[in-house]
Amino acid sequence: MALVTISAKCYPTEDPAKVERAVLNLFPGSEVERSAYAITAKTSSLERFKELIRNHRILDATRRVMVQGTNGNGTRFVLNKQAALSGKVSFLDGKVALGGIQVAIEDEDLSTLIDQVAPITVDGEEVPR
After folding, report:
1. How many whole angstroms separate alpha carbon 32 and alpha carbon 17?
2. Which of 11, 12, 57, 62 is the most exposed place for a label (fewest CB within 10 A)?
3. What span, in angstroms and rounded, lies between the C-alpha atoms of 34 and 75?
4. Who contacts 65 (Cβ-Cβ below 8 Å, separation ≥6)?
5. Residues 6+ apart with CB under 8 A from 16
């Protein structure tokens, strides 16, 4: 079973409730911990995330980001807070003024998990394995 850890800093100019909502838009049902400066959440479910990347037709981009972020039994990537607040998945590459949402996924069989979340596609259609 996957362990997904999501974290986002809350800067003084940001509303912590909106940062939390952004996280929960992509990973609903997560157990959330709040501090004065950050939101941290944990879940084992990637269902909403999988649904969103299919709806937005970004399977290839998601797969690339997950594979590039792989280290051992885990992968890491960063999501855009503003997009997440709107219920959209947008990956960040590089620094952003207010940072992003850090996502770390650990699983004993990471390659299978990546195949389930963001399978290989041909002409936009999933290729069965």
Report:
1. 11
2. 12
3. 24
4. 77, 91
5. 10, 34, 39
Q: How does pLDDT run across 37-46, given as a tens digit for each residue?
A: 999 999 999 9
Question: Between the CA of residue 51 and those of 83, 90, 111, what are the distances in Å?
Answer: 15, 14, 19
- Classified by CATH at the fold level, domain 3-119 comes out as 50s Ribosomal Protein L5; Chain: A, (3.30.1440)
Contacts of 20 (CB under 8 A, 6+ apart): 32, 34, 39
Q: How confident is the model at residue 69 (pLDDT cuts 50, 70, 90)?
A: very high
Could you tell me what percentage of the chain is helix, strand and coil, using 3-state DSSP and rounding each to the nearest 5?
35, 30, 40
18 phi, psi to nearest 5 deg? -70, -35
**Cβ neighbours of 15 (radius 10 Å):** 10
Q: Are 48 and 26 in contact (CB under 8 A)?
A: yes
Would you list the domain boundaries of the chain?
Answer: 3-119
Distance CA 85, CA 119 (A): 25
